[in-house]
Amino acid sequence: MTLEIRKIPAAELEGQRSALAEILWACVQNGASVGFVLPFPRQAAADFWQTRVFPAVERADTLLFGAFLDGKLQGTAQLGISLPPNQPHRADVGKLLVHPETRR
After folding, report:
1. Which long-range contacts link 58-67 to residues 24+ away (Cβ below 8 Å)?
2. Would you say 45 and 28 are in contact if contact means Cβ atoms under 8 Å apart?
3. Number of C-beta neighbours around residue 3 at 10 A
4. Is beta strand 72-80 parallel, antiparallel or unpaired with respect to 62-69?
5. At 27, phi and psi to the nearest 5?
């Protein structure tokens, strides 16, 4: 197995949308407390990425990292870097998600 962890650039977001939605949806279905409650439809997961995360990545307010196992996206982490001017040394870790089938 080959594991690659890398930044997902804005130009690649649309191509990863379904994988990102699947990871979020599966995590919530398996009890992850990440700001969503059941019932949680797959479309709501896709909408979260499209309306909240993608614009932040495109504005360079957020960095999105992906964990790829054998080339397939299996996990993500968001790093919020749009902070006040007196905090250029800081960042906020956003949703850290790993598909339940890939854990352990």
Report:
1. 58/10, 58/13, 62/94, 63/7, 64/7, 64/8, 64/13, 65/5, 65/6, 65/7, 65/8, 66/5, 66/6, 66/7, 66/8, 66/16, 67/3, 67/4, 67/5, 67/98
2. yes
3. 11
4. antiparallel
5. -65, -45
Terminal Cα-to-Cα distance of the chain (whole angstroms)? 14
Model confidence at 104, in pLDDT bands (50, 70, 90)? confident
Question: By C-alpha distance, which of 74, 14, 92, 101 is closest to 49?
Answer: 14
**pLDDT for position 88:** 85
pTM over 0.70: yes
* 91, HSE (Cβ side, Cα atoms, 13 Å): 13
pLDDT value of position 43 = 97
pLDDT in tens, 19-40: 999 999 999 999 999 999 999 9
